[in-house]
Write a structure and sequence with these properties.
With 153 residues, this protein is mainly beta. Helices cover 5% and strands 59% of the residues.
Length: 153
C-alpha cells in the first residue's frame, strides 16, 4: 500500500464581500459570495488573491452543512497568474455553524471544514501545479475564511 502524503503549499486568507442571496431553489438554499481579495503565503508559493473570485454556496435546510464551490484568481509575487478552483464542505452542529457564520470565535476543531482543489496556470515555472491535487483545512474568523492548503504527494 502506498500511503497518501501531504506537504504544505500555502496559507490562504480571503476577504469576502456581501453575499448575494438567491434563496431556496430546487438545488437547495443558494447564495453567492464575491471574493474581494486576500493573500497566500507558503514555502513555494506566495502572493495575492485578485478581485473577481466567487464562492457559490449551497446550504441544507436545517443548517448543519453547506457545500462551497470556489474559483479564485491568484497572482504570485513574481507576477504569475494562477487559477485555483476548490470544492468542499463546512459541517457541524447548527448552533456552532451559526456562530462561525457570524464571525464569532469558534475552535476549528468544533466543526468540519475541508476542501479539495486544483490549479491552472500558463506560467512555465509553475506548470507542476496543473496536475496537482490539493486539500485544504479551513477555518472562519470575523475577517473571512482561511485555509491551510496542502499538496497531495
Amino acid at each position: 500500500m502506498n500511503p497518501i502524503r501531504t506537504e504544505l503549499l500555502f496559507r490562504l486568507d480571503l476577504a469576502v464581500g456581501e453575499h448575494h442571496v438567491l434563496g431556496q431553489t430546487p438545488a437547495g438554499s443558494r447564495r453567492i459570495a464575491p471574493v474581494a481579495g486576500g493573500t497566500f503565503h507558503g514555502p513555494q508559493l506566495s502572493g495575492i488573491v485578485l478581485p473577481g473570485g466567487t464562492d457559490w454556496i449551497t446550504e441544507d435546510s436545517n443548517g448543519s452543512w453547506f457545500q462551497i464551490n470556489v474559483r479564485l484568481p491568484l497572482q504570485t509575487h513574481e507576477g504569475e497568474l494562477v487559477v485555483m478552483a476548490y470544492k468542499g464542505f463546512r459541517s457541524g452542529q447548527p448552533d456552532i455553524l451559526q456562530k462561525v457564520a457570524r464571525g464569532e470565535p469558534v475552535d476549528p476543531n468544533d466543526y468540519y471544514y475541508r476542501v479539495v482543489g486544483t490549479f491552472e496556470t500558463s506560467a512555465v515555472r509553475l506548470s507542476w501545479l496543473n496536475t496537482l491535487v490539493a486539500v485544504g483545512v479551513g477555518s472562519r474568523s470575523a475577517t473571512g475564511p482561511a485555509y491551510d492548503v496542502f499538496a497531495v504527494l
